[in-house]
Amino acid sequence: MNTTSFSLALSLTCACLIGSPNRLLSANLPPEPSAEYLVREDVNIITGLYTREYALGKDGVVDYKTARQIVISEYNEYWNTVVETLEFPLFYWHDADHDGQFEMWIDPKGHGCVCDIVPYTPYPE
Predict the structure, then answer these.
(1) CA dist 87 → 8, 9, 79, 113, 123 (Å)
(2) E strands, the chain, where?
């Protein structure tokens, strides 16, 4: 491959990676916080989701949420619900400007890679 072709191919690849709106938007989503930021968690067998709510400012105001798919649900000897979930969240919510309006994100591949997490856009009715 000559230098001109290589340069053109490299330029197009960079333009695709940098110019993708979803890739730029996923850069605005912070990584999932650690347990020290956890405010609430909920196991909902009906929806099949285990949700966790976080306060990034450690002030008790929820501004980040995740939801993992439940794979197995059972009760322990004390009749408490015990679940096994997928390793990475399926859904993410983030309230970047703390106005109570969360942006929703989805990881359709479920690998936890930031490159796969995109804004969730529901189908129009």
Answers:
(1) 39, 36, 24, 12, 27
(2) 38-44, 49-54, 64-75, 81-85, 91-94, 103-106, 118-119
Listed as ranges, residues in the chain with pLDDT below 50 are 1-25
Let me know the angle formed at the C-alpha of 122 by 96 and 43, rounded to the nearest 5 degrees.
70
The predicted model scores a pTM of 0.75
What single-letter amino acid sits at 20?
Answer: S
Domain coordinates in residue numbering, the chain: 21-119
Segment 70-97, tens digit of pLDDT: 999 999 999 999 999 999 999 999 999 9
Q: What is the DSSP letter of 41?
A: E
- Spatial neighbors of 67 by CB under 8 A, at least 6 apart, are 49, 50, 51, 52, 89, 90, 91
